[in-house]
Amino acid sequence: MSNEEQELEARLADQEYFRPSPEFVGQANVSDPAIYDRFDDFPAGFEEYAELLDWDKRWDEVLDASNPRFMSGSSAGS
Asked: Does the N-terminal peptide bond of residue 43 adopt cis geometry, omega within 30 degrees of 0?
């Protein structure tokens, strides 16, 4: 693994997740906190929401992590 890739991996591991503030949650259209919890199950939680969208072609995988610098969601879907 190159130094660039190691640095990226270290930065990704250090990132924190910030929950929305109570004020934001209060004005949001989504009021069930369980919806936010589903995103903790990554990437399966994202697949659940992607299933709710209409697709011309279903994706091959939820997350294409073959090149970490340029990750993309729902690869090959349209």
From this structure: yes
Rounded to whole angstroms, the Cα distance separating 39 from 10 reads 21
Count CB atoms within 10 A of the CB of residue 38.
13
For the chain, which residues make up each domain, given as ranges?
3-75
CB-based contacts of 46: which residues, under 8 Å, 6+ apart? 39, 62, 63, 73
Q: Does pTM top 0.70 for this prediction?
A: no
Long-range CB contact pairs, 71-74, < 8 A, 24+: 73/43, 73/46, 74/50
- What is the tens place of the pLDDT at every residue in 18-64? 888 999 878 888 778 787 787 787 777 788 888 888 989 887 877 77
